Amino acid sequence: MALKLIGPHPFELDAQGQQKTRIGTLFPKHGVLYTAAPGVHAWQRSNFIERVNAERALDRLPPLTLEEEERLCADSVDLIFDPNRILIRPNPERMAQAFVADELLQKLVSKQKIIFLSVSDKRVSEAIRRRGELWRVSAIPKAREEKRKLIFGSKVSIGGQPIYFYNRLTGTRWLTCETFGELGKMDDVSLAQHLQEIADYSIRRNRLGRAELDFFAADLRHFGPRMFAGVVFTELAGTPLRAKYEALKQHYHSAVHEAFRRDDCHNDAWCKRIISTLFLDGNETQTEQVLSGMSPEFFMQVEWVPGGRFEEGEFLFDPIFDEAAQRPEDAELQRLCDVRARGFIFNLIREYGDLDYINIGRVPESLSLARPQRRGRRGVYIAELLSRGEHVSIKRFMRLQKWGVWEHLDEGKDLLQAIEESEEYTDFWLDRRLGCRQLGMNLPSRVVMRRLVETYQGKNARYHGRQIHTTYFERAYLAGIATDKLPLEKFAAAGYALQFARQLGKAAASSMIMGRSLEQGKRPVFDDGDEVVREDEDGLPAEIMLGDHSGVFGEYQLPLDNFAAHYARPVNTRAKLISMPKEFAQAYLAAFKKQFLHVQEDYRKRRRGFDALFKHCKYDTGGSFAFRWESVLRRLDQTDVDQLLGAIREHIWVLNPGKAENQPPA
User: Fold this and answer.
1) Which residue from 346, 352, 475, 505 has the highest number of Cβ atoms inside 10 Å of its Cβ?
2) pLDDT tens digit string along 546-560?
3) How confident is the model over 584-601, as a mean pLDDT?
4) How far apart are CA 514 and CA 508, in angstroms?
5) What are the two backbone dihedrals, phi and then psi, of residue 620, each rounded to the nearest 5 degrees?
């Protein structure tokens, strides 16, 4: 079915460069997108019914019955137009219609420009998830400038000027105190028309049962629709009109806290409140967590990418990949269609067999707040899949090998050498993991090494277009929250802080023993995003697990007390956040000592088994893993734990109040 457009194209601009229309209504059974009468969706439905009846009259047919009109309205799909996107606001009880509308819209614009709202409703999210299209949900940008563009780009009109901030999810238009104050600059006729518009629409409800117009940040006990009641503003002019307006403006001003009287994205309080009002009421941004079931630091970062869906047991790749192949010049589309998703999907289908759906997402940046992003690969992906007949989805975490064939080719090496060095690094990665487990580090129990095929297009022109294998490591997703991103309110719960301190001290001992460090051993790392807190049924920390063992055995020669200040930092950074900082510090140190002694005594008891574990491997004092392993065991054996604890204690400010004044910020 072809799509007929009545009204301006969704992205058409007027002489001032503004969109001619911000809303549309699609009637799937008629194959019509109606964008005329750009005030509210109700107008568009009403106008379209009049148009249908006019056409029926020409054909000498009776007008639609009331029941037919209601069915036509119920079958319609509401749309909102951003400058470069069409947003579908589906009826959760009629998802099939939303998907039909989606397919019709793809005849008008690229699929990448069509996304879904209302995905916090489980019926909507499940329907989208099962189509393998989590990449088509809306999200809130993180940068301030992008937020500003989103906020002010949401301004719409009803019949007059675009003075309202539009919640595209609920359909409510929000009037702010500053914008209301600006109405006084209009001439009498325009002012009266806008005041009448506010009076009329502030008492109306849309078909979602939400207010057509509301007052941002106003205390409704002191200002609201009732303030406009009993006045016909279009019959006023001159002094009476201005007097009534000034009185309303003063009432609105008094009903709003000072922080919300000006529309200013640099005012964090206003910015957070308007975003919450426009985009979190219902709720688009939280949907990333709803959809993924992931901890907060993950769900706000994951970018879902196209994959495909299953139909009658057969997997069909998303047709947007074909679109990307036809438009290689479109950088945004090329970035969206991540070809690695194909490789992940193939491997998951091979392993799990009969699947209901798969969704693939990527984490574009390190979640560590201070982790340097320099050389090597940093690709991290998430997969969510459901086996047919199961009720609980499976989440898999995939991390590309840091040094693979691609990276070595980029260094100018030939293909054979690149493959050999990639294989060596894979062995190094796996040996480090085995060493961690031997020394008691709490890691995921199972990690699988896999490969996918990529077409090389890197710096080494000799091999452009060659297919190469890329190694990645796959494990179960760790449910929990990174230690450095725990919400402050967690520490207010009874017993939480001390239990957390014990688990943190235990994890710190393992990290220090293993010499976990980056930048060739120059910078120790701990408590910076890879350690995940897992809570028990009572909501208290049950364990801390290291999600990724990057950096282990990075520093294997210096005495451990060289890193005392770094391992005091987890206490210092939290000292002002908890009610009993001294007790927290003491619990941390006690758990550190207990774990360190446990590992040390275990080594001394089974010295031969530990020493011989990597005897078969290449031994090179320049830094082979066998040499690092030997060095770490020797250092472990020779360390005096009480002396080490004393060094850490010296750097904990709450235990050394006299020194705290001279310490740099944590």
Assistant:
1) 505
2) 988 989 999 999 999
3) 98
4) 10
5) -145, 120
Cα torsion 548, 551, 556, 562 to 10°: value is -100
Fold of 481-660: 1.10.1070
Beta carbons of 299 and 292 less than 8 angstroms apart? yes
Rounded distance between C-alpha atoms, residue 638 and residue 14, angstroms: 77
Q: Which of 3-17, 148-162, 242-256, 271-285 has the lowest mean pLDDT?
A: 271-285
Higher-confidence residue: 255 or 528? 255
Per-residue confidence (pLDDT) for residue 169, from 0 to 100: 80
Phi then psi for residue 391, to 5 deg, are -110, -15
User: DSSP secondary-structure letter at 3?
Assistant: P
pLDDT tens figures, 621-632? 999 999 999 999
pLDDT for residue 389 is more than 90: no
Task: For the chain, give the number of residues.
Answer: 666
Three-state DSSP at 532 gives strand
Task: Tell me the C-alpha distance between 130 and 91, whole Å.
Answer: 17
Nearest-angstrom CA–CA distance, 634 and 549: 21
At 661 the pLDDT is 46
Helix (H) / strand (E) element for 479: namely none
Instruction: Answer yes or no: are the C-beta atoms of 124 and 153 closer than 8 Å.
Output: no
Instruction: Write out 325-352 in H/E/C secondary structure.
Output: HHCCCCHHHHHHCCCHHHHHHHHHHHHH
Give the pLDDT of residue 199.
96
Q: Tell me if 114 sits within 8 A of 88, measured CB to CB.
A: yes
> What does DSSP assign to residue 10?
T
Q: How far is CA 401 from CA 377, 418, 441, in A?
A: 7, 13, 21
